[in-house]
What does this fold into?
Amino acid sequence: MDILNAIVALLNFVIIPGAAYGAQLALGALGVTLVYGILRFSNFAHGDTMAFGTAMTIIVTWGLLALGISFGPLPTALLALPFGIGLTALLVLGTDRLVYRFYRKVKAAPVILVMVSMGVMFVMNGITRFIIGVNEINFTDGERFIINAREFREATGLAEGLAFRTTQGITLVVAVIAVAALFWFLNRTRTGKSMRAFSDNEDLALLSGINPERVVAVTWIIVAALATTAGVLYGLDKSFKAFTYFQLLLPIFASAVVGGLGNPLGAIAGGFVIAFSEVTVTYAWKKVLTYLLPADWAPAGLVQLMGTDYKFAVSFAILVIVLLIKPTGIFKGKSL
Amino acid sequence: MSVNLRNIALFAALAVLYLGTAMIYGWNLTLTIVNMGLISAVMALGVNMQWGYAGLFNIGIMGFVALGGLAVVLVSMPPVGEAWAAGGVRLIFGLLVGAASMVAAVLVWSKLPKGRVRGLALLAVLIVGFTLYSMVFDPAVRAVEAVNPSSTGYLGGLGLPVLLAWPAGGALAAGAAWLIGKTALGLRSDYLAIATLGISEIVLALLKNEDWLARGVKNVTGLPRPVPFEVNLQQNPAFVAWARDWGLDLATTSSIVVKLSYAGLFLVVLLALVWLVETAWRSPWGRMMRAIRDNEVSAAAMGKDVTRRHLQIFVLGSAVCGMAGAMMTTLDGQLTPGTYQPLRYTFLIWVMVVVGGSGNNWGSVLGGFLIWWLWVMVEPIGQNVLSVVTMGLADGSWLKSHLTDAAAHMRLLTMGIILLLVLRFSPRGLIPEK
It folds into this structure.
């Protein structure tokens, strides 16, 4: 029985990766939930907005590196992030102008807008692939680890090493800053309050003189910022590949629905619920259990509930359970 | 369909398009496009039932198509005796144990009173069930997959005629659709979309990873065919004599004859389905479906069970997609889970339905043929366009090679723009619903 080592192994393989992944999902789900709250449709193009934003950031990163600019121990992509956000904001504002605005004007049914967003997804996916191709791209630079596994072992004398990657640390810090800024904006500023009013009751908001087009434009800019940040953090932590971002749609939607579509707090909670379920279900518990149990009880198999290839099944199963038991999500969303 | 000049002209234009292709590229290639066009039309028909008739948004078509493909393997491949001997029965038993523990969990949840006891009992049932399941199932899978892994390593199928796989594929897809519909229908319309997206990813993950089922990414090749092989035709003296009388090239002719027989089979299925759907649509049932689609609230007030009817049509439409998937795998002669892309099998079908005219069966048929032709042709056309555009650039320049490589992605962009333009400017499609 070796509780310390078990805790370190748990931290190393479950808690830290789960928290980082959860923060990335939460940022993604926040974007989906905002579009849902203000524009009232599920935006299937969100995964590809993330991909586009990340692709833009990667290109600016390359440009900065070519100019000899880097961010010291931190990844250069963080410097390029504001440019990526700006370009993505231009893209989504343009899309809104060219595509979505018409449907808003004719007050189309939500399902039509969902379908339109599918068309937008196609086009964005095409643009991203056209610009940056389909290959896997690693764009992390700077210091790799905050805590190195080998140094940790030497410093503590434990058998189990603890690795805390810079990208994971950055993900958590940036996510906290982004969420704090978003909530400050929604709760404290005049524009943020008008957005919430618009989301709660569109007619009343219009009566009190809120300019709907301005609310929509601000929403899209925030969504672009959230999507690009989420995409860049995910890409730094793993790697960038256009198709992976499309596949992220499912866990992101699951997070937003679990938390309650249209509810920002719910999106954050949902992101962590999905991420931790995914990691715990696909993690092979053999190591932790071997430390915890008496020697002759040690499990023979991997004690893995599901192969990592089925991680989508986890988000899906949670989604189905939520739809069956509580379709409005943990925090009351606008669903139903 | 009202037989009017406009529709006849549209189909005539389509025929001219295909005839033109035949003139330029030859009949062999054209028939390949026609065959996939027929299958696409069946898929579009299934999606049109869901979208055009009930307003249900299904973006998991790929999953249902893949299930149809799986049905072909399960029905038509001969059983692998050694694998069954090694652990087939045990494997099935393991699956039953898994299913039984799920049922037990659901029973515990619904029968026991709310409270801590229920939660603990549920957890206990799940843990015991999972342990039992993996104790029975995992060794069986290892045993089955160890049997001659380079050529079999799976349980095989039932060894029945391959045509039976088509309705079986429909049934398999219908089963999956029932499960999804039962959970997601009756809630917001977007939930069905998200749920279908999920199920299609999971079906693909299953097909790729469960080697005992259909060999996973190792693919099942050499599926039985409902039509003769080209080689057999070429050795058939009657056929050889016939081809010689007409002065035809033996290799090309045999290939064309095989493709024509496939086309005949597919055409029978397509026409039968169109007839069935059109008849149903004119029946009282169709009238009820239209009433529900046009105003759910008033239909519900008239005593119609909206959710139940939606479930019905969702299952039927998915079954048609599954059947088309089985037909496609039969045509290919192999099941290759690695090649299923949502873009190709979900979104393309949507473009077909929307462009053809949602709510109109003949529109779906037209859209299926037209968009499939575009899908095949956009890449060569795009390459030509780009080679003209980049003519001024020096060979080997960065921009030129980048643009030429990117031509492969033109399809995505083109299809997306077509979808958006049609939705915006002609939402009723080429052949609108009456």
In short: Chain B has 18 helices and no strands.
